[in-house]
Model the fold of this input.
Amino acid sequence: MNILTFDVEDWFHILDNESTKNEKQWSQLESRIHQNMDKIFALLEKHDQKATFFTLGWVARKYPEIIRKIDGLGHDIANHSDMHQLAYEFNREEFRQDLECSIKSIEDVVGKKVKAYRAPGFSVMHQNKWVFDELIKNGIEMDSSVFPAKRAHGGFEEFGYAEPAYIEVGGSRIKEFPINLYPVFGKDIIFSGGGYFRLIPYTLIKYFMNKSNYVMTYFHPRDFDAEQPMIEGLSAFRRFKSYVGLKGSSHKLDRLIEDFSFVDLKEADASIDWSKAKVINLGEKI
Done:
């Protein structure tokens, strides 16, 4: 099962960076989201391919026409938080407010229930696993926030599973679609989105795809924009990670969709026999 997803955000929505931390700073920067989303729409139309778009509540309010176009083209719409902040930097009440605002903003535009969520930067960790409880309480049925390996923004290595599963908290359950891993010389490799996808040669990505039973992709509009400005304040490593491979990424994704079959999250959910799914119990009180 290969799932195709995009996180709908602008090029300056870079996490953990002081020059792009808040809305006031964003307002001073050029928006490139329309042209970058149009590239994605054209590529998907070329292949008659549907995808899930995890969108910010901020984008839904500022550019509702983008969200309407996603819906009008028959794609699946999900939630990517409201203001694109790391979930573990919130306390529980702050997270709840951000979640409720994002759900309302998206649902007000499309008039449909938002059923799925992905935290910015996959920033759900063992220390803030209460996020799942809040998602359930707010009607979210599916999540794709678990990065089951070490990561710059945390990661949930203790989760210990990289395939669709139920997460159970306090007697309630939510369906989890984590990021997939591939073992190479005893180390888990991530290849299916972001800088990893742009950096790794396509021949290797194709090999990993062919050997994987489950792949959760995660792309961003900025991943296909070689002309975007350089963000101030990034370390040399983060500049490399954020800008490597931009020129060839559109062609690489074109080849990927041509070479493999993909479904959106909604279709993936419908195809799984959840009665046989693994249950990850995170405890009664979190």
Summary: The CA atoms of residues 49 and 110 lie 20 Å apart. The chain has eleven helices and twelve strands. The two ends are 31 Å apart (CA to CA).
